[in-house]
Amino acid sequence: MEYLIKFSAIITLFYLCYRLLLYRETFFEANRWFLLIGLMSATLLPYLTITTYAEQLPPSLVILEISTTATILPIKKSINWFLILNTTYFLGVFFFTIRHLLQIISLIKILSHNKIHKKEEYKYVVTSDSHTPLFRFLNGLFTIPLNLTKQN
Q: pLDDT tens digits for 37-47?
């Protein structure tokens, strides 16, 4: 879990630097190298541990008096950050899995309700819905017929 926290912190730091400094730049190759170095750094840096040693003085001898009366102190409930982080992580995984499944179901509906034309290595799926955007998925090109685009 400690590795994931360090990894996430480093990725977040690189992403923030990218968004603040390089997002609008047109040097795409430099941007790619920056993001790749950030990914490699985030993968390797959590394994690096920096230890510092501090000299500790021996404790002085203190004589404590033991009292026979017991005092009841209220127990403070601490926040279980590990549980909160795990729950947040798995809720995110669950949310994006459901979202991805819904997008796949939508894609299957588009494939099943429209004609597929094969040309060379690509499959052209011409949709009749003018609200379907033009997009590409695997070897399929999803388009709107020309007569519908001229009307809009």
A: 888 888 888 88
Cα of first residue to Cα of last residue in the chain, in angstroms, is: 52
Q: Are 129 and 111 in contact (CB under 8 A)?
A: no
Beta-sheet pairing, 140-143 with 122-126: parallel
pLDDT at 152: 44
**Ordered DSSP codes for 71-134:** ---PPPPPP-HHHHHHHHHHHHHHHHHHHHHHHHHHHHHHHHHSEEEEETTEEEEE-S-TTSPP
Nearest to 14, CA basis, from 44, 47, 38: 38
b/e sequence 97-136, b meaning 16+ C-beta within 10 Å: eeeeeeeeeebeebeeebeeeeeeeebebbbeeeebeeee
Taking residues 95-104, report their average pLDDT: 91
Beta bridge partners of 124: 117, 141
CA-angle at 4, arms to 32 and 16, nearest 5°: 40
Residue 39 main-chain phi, psi, to 5 deg: -65, -45
SS3 35: helix
Q: Please tell me whether the overall predicted TM-score, pTM, comes out greater than 0.70 for this model.
A: no
Residue type, 139: N
